[in-house]
Amino acid sequence: MKFYNREEEVNYLKTYCQLEPNTILFVYGSKSSGKITVMLKVIEELSEKDIIFFYYDLRKYATSTKEEFLEI
């Protein structure tokens, strides 16, 4: 799949995902903005590395506070 103007995001995420794990990364943005597609590209490019990815689709939940989000 061809990406247009997403190289910077893909490279940033690849670098971030290879750092010592001490945080959780949340990728968020407008609906249908390409979040999943970009992350799938990152996962594909890092498939040879010993990295485990978790994916949670929170689209069906409408949360307005951090507490609500953490409860999900």
UniProtKB/TrEMBL annotation:
GO MF annotation list: ATP binding
Pfam family, one: ATPase_2
Superkingdom assignment: Archaea
SUPFAM superfamilies tied to this protein: P-loop containing nucleoside triphosphate hydrolases (SSF52540)
Domain ATPase: residue ranges: 3-69
Gene3D superfamilies: P-loop containing nucleotide triphosphate hydrolases
Family matches, as PANTHER family: AAA+ ATPASE DOMAIN-CONTAINING PROTEIN, YALI0E33429P
Name under which the protein is recorded: ATPase
Species this chain originates from: Methanocaldococcus villosus KIN24-T80
Lineage, top ranks: Archaea, Methanobacteriati, Methanobacteriota, Methanomada group, Methanococci
